[in-house]
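Now produce a polypeptide, keeping tokens residue-aligned:
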Amino acid sequence: MINLEVRCPKNVTVISIDPNPSWNFNNLMSELSSLESKLYNNGTDSSLNPKPFIKSPARDFRKIGRRENNVEKSKAFVMRIDDVEMNEFDDDGTEAGSLEEIRNQLAALETQLVAEKEKSTSALVQVEKNIDVRRQMDRKLDLHYQRKIAEALDDHLTAIQRDHEHRSQLEERKIRDDAAVEEAKRKEKALQEEKLRQQKAKEDQEARLEAAKRAEEERKAAQEAEKLAKEAADKLKEENSRKDYVNAQKAASTTSAANVSKEMKSSGNLVRAAVNALKLEERRLQIYKELNDRNQLIISGSHANFVPKERDIKRTIRQITGTIDNVRSKANKLVEILNDPVCPQSVAVAMFAKEVISIFETTSPKFNSSAFACGHVIVYVSSQVPAVMDCLLAEFHKACIYTVPKHKMYSKAAFETEESYYKAIGYREENGKTETTDSYLDRIESLMKLYGALVQTVTQGVQNKHGLEEGWAWLARFLNVLPPNRYTAVALEAFLEMAGFALHRKYKSQFIKVLNSISREFVPKLRARDPNAGSKISRIQEYIESQKFLQEPTGWRLQGALLLHTSVPEADRRQEQYHHAPNRHFTYHR
């Protein structure tokens, strides 16, 4: 009996078959050959020895069911025949029937395998066709993409080449233009140099002729009068300085008491000032009042808006700095504004005076450079517009009584409260309250510094209508009439800081005597009357003892490209000078 072991056994007569889903025809043929060999070997002595299985040479079943190269080989179909069953088969004599049955089944299997082979072959053929079609499509797509890439690359390279050519053309054109410009500049420079050389040669020749002529004339005059003129000038200068100082002191000392008694009788002789100073103040205030009254009539009868003009003046004054170019440009601009026919000159003059005082009284006292520069601007503007100086001095007197100079004494009979006295000497109200003493003293210091910078300004070709002579007279009136206190101490120290250097250069020993008088009389009286004025006393003493009047104040010398030296010897030391050119513009000269 033949037993085929399968997972789900099925019996056919005496044969049990176990189909394996992963078998192939080669495995089946191998098993059949093994089975045939066993049957042949077991039946050699029997009369019923079966014939071995004979393969048909016309059929090649080894190729049936062959899979792709990468498919793993399946397990073989297993057929086992037990010896006991074989013996029983021999005994029953059924070998021939079993073999016939097997042949029939093998034929059926062969038929099925052929069908499967044809089906597999057709499937493989279809797969190969699909692969070929897909390859052709991929090849076409690759060619299409390569063509697109080649076209894009060609366009890109063409654009790059075109851009490069364009850039090259631009560079070449730029090089040609630059070369042409350089050549033109070179020719122009050569022409200018030639003109300058010729002009310089001509000027040198004229200068030599002029110098020779002038030298001859000067030589004749110098031989006769040089020594006598020098001695006479020195002697006359010394005598004039001494006479000015003595006359000022005598006039102030002999008339101060009488003048004070004549002024302000209704207030109990509270005003301390020289008569001449009060008359000058009254005259300036009267001129300023008449100017304001005239301006009010002009403004009320005109529809013009003068606010932009006032802003322009204010902005120009604020832009003044301690440089030559700045002073020149701002002075010329202010003169143009004051002479502008669009705005009446009297209105512009009042605006200018008011803005100068308004700006500098709110400025920090540490503004020496701007004060000296503003002094130059004021002197030049007042030389072109004469009404400016009187209006500006009137504004000075209104803002600070010590520019007169004068001082009001406190009296309970004359002033109901201390606040009314403070207002009388110049204190202002801030948010309904009287300003602090420190704020008032800072304002006095700022205005006195500006006043001192103005009186010491010396400008070549332009007359300072309120120059060093007025400063010397102010100092004499101040020391002869005003009492020493913290207010007058601040005013005196600020004035000396700005004008002391110029006063000493002009009055020399007379100025030294004034400083000695301050040390001997003013300072001790101040210390006795106001023990809290120690800082003011220290500043005055330091100025005198350290001889600061021998040093140029900070900002006294304007800075600029034409300034060759920051300091010069005493004999040649001069302040930067300006003069008014015929074209009405401010120009610089040393």
User: Anything to note?
Assistant: The chain has a mean pLDDT of 79. The two ends are 146 Å apart (CA to CA).
